[in-house]
Amino acid sequence: MTQKELDYVEDAIKHENNLASIIKESIELLEDDSLISFMQKQLDDHKSLHKELMDLLEEKENE
Fold first, then answer.
1. Residues 29, 34, 39, 43, Cα dihedral to 10°
2. Pairwise CA distance, residues 63 & 60, whole Å
3. How far is residue 26 CA from its own chain's centroid?
4. Which tens digits make up the pLDDT trace of 6-16?
5. CA–CA distance, 29 with 25 (Å, rounded to integer)
6. What whole-number distance in Å separates Cα of residue 33 and Cα of residue 62?
7. Cβ distance 36 to 30 under 8 Å?
8. Disulfide-capable partner of 23 in 3, 8, 31, 43 (CB 3.0 to 4.6 Å)?
9. The three-state (H, E, C) secondary structure of the chain, written as one string
């Protein structure tokens, strides 16, 4: 993985962390159950993507 690609993955991880934080805060403010459910799904999706990116970094680190 080139340094540019590594930088991109690290930026993507930070972006996913930021999005997860914003979504968590939003969920706490919502009252509509359907919106809460939708936002929880979004949070789960972003957590999954974050894990995939972290796994990619670990895989490259172990090469």
1. 120
2. 5
3. 15
4. 999 999 999 99
5. 7
6. 43
7. yes
8. 43
9. CCHHHHHHHHHHHHHHHHHHHHHHHHHHHCCCHHHHHHHHHHHHHHHHHHHHHHHHHHHHHCC
pLDDT, tens digit (0-9, with 9 covering 90-100), for 11-59: 999 999 999 999 999 999 999 999 999 999 999 999 999 999 999 999 8
Burial category of 1 from C-beta neighbours within 10 Å (exposed 0-12, middle 13-18, buried 19 and up): middle
pLDDT at 60: 84
pLDDT of residue 36: 98
User: Which residue shows structure tokens 């957590």?
Assistant: 47
State the pLDDT at residue 61.
82
What's the whole-model pTM score?
0.85
